[in-house]
Amino acid sequence: MPSSSPHSRPIVLAHLTDMHLFADSGGTLLGVDTEASFRGVLQHLLDSGDAPDLVLATGDLSQDGRPESYTRFLGMVAPLGAPVHVLPGNHDVRAPFQAVLAAHAAPVIDQGPWRIILLDSTLPDDEGGRLAPDQFDLLRTAGQVEDGRHVLVAMHHNPVPMHSAWLDPMRIGNADALFAVLDALPRVRALLWGHVHQAGDSLHVFDHPPGRAPLRMLSTPSTCFQFTPLSERFSIDPVAPGYRWITLHPDGRLDTRVVRVAALAPAPDHPSHDSTGY
């Protein structure tokens, strides 16, 4: 008879990031109506017929940091019918973020055979990222699982370079310390982030212990505009917004795919193509 244990089946996660919503409906950023774009992404997800076990949103939920933008976010994701978990990005404002989203911002989520740890990589009034001592303490403690679970760690900023000269200075400034902690946490299988407005999928190979599985490292497109990969200067990529599906298997394997919403791709003459920043 098949086991009915919650640890016996995969967990399906929908990753959404960098919505840049405004308090007022119809607000635009680089010529993009960020709310309309996010609604289009959510509708595409709903129309797929796939139901996530949980939804993870990794920062820059808001562009203006006002409470109304966070309330709007919650209303928009409610039709997904799955638990929603969030962490802040550099455009989010801590006080209203916590006031509206505290119930969705627990830093540790145990879901079946996996544990998800949410790290706060933001700095006040700074676009760059850095992990504070309390975040390392959280990771060390929560990453020491003793019940056979595997671990996925999520944050807003990228911990590794994206090989983009203008963007990489805003990555996590003390990433070497992060990987030193991860070196002692063999149950951590993957790192996941937003911030970079582009898809990435790579491996980090540990020097020890011998034979340890590589760490999967993933970034996900924004639900609005995208950054051109490998760019020297700020540049908008004329590709469609999207989201990422992640399937977390009981044996520690991870399957993932990025979904682009082609109908939301910017027009060739979209004003954002000539932008020099935001």
Descriptive report:
With 278 residues, the chain is α/β, with parallel strands linked by helices. It has one domain (10-265): 4-Layer Sandwich (Purple Acid Phosphatase, chain A, domain 2), CATH 3.60.21.10. 18% of the residues lie in helices and 26% in strands. It contains five helices and 17 strands. The strands form five sheets. It has a six-stranded mixed sheet with strand order 6-7-10-11-13-12, with helices on one face. A five-stranded mixed sheet has the order 5-4-1-16-17, with no helix packed on it. Helix 2 (67-77) runs parallel beside helix 3 (94-101). The N and C termini lie far apart (57 Å). The model has no long low-confidence stretch (mean pLDDT 93).
Write down the CATH topology: Purple Acid Phosphatase, chain A, domain 2
Q: Tell me the name of the CATH homologous superfamily.
A: Metallo-dependent phosphatases
Q: Tell how many strands the DSSP assignment holds.
A: 17
Distance between the termini: 57 Å
- Strand arrangement, major sheet: 6-7-10-11-13-12
How many structurally independent domains? 1
Mean pLDDT across residues: 93
Which sheet architecture does the biggest sheet show? Answer: 6 strands, mixed
- Proportion of helical residues: 10-25%
Q: Which CATH architecture is right?
A: 4-Layer Sandwich
Low-confidence stretches: none
The SS-based structural class is alpha/beta
What are the secondary-structure elements, in order, as H or E? EEEHEHEHEEEEHEHEEEEEEE
* Total count of helical runs of at least 4 residues: 5
| Overall radius of gyration | 18 Å
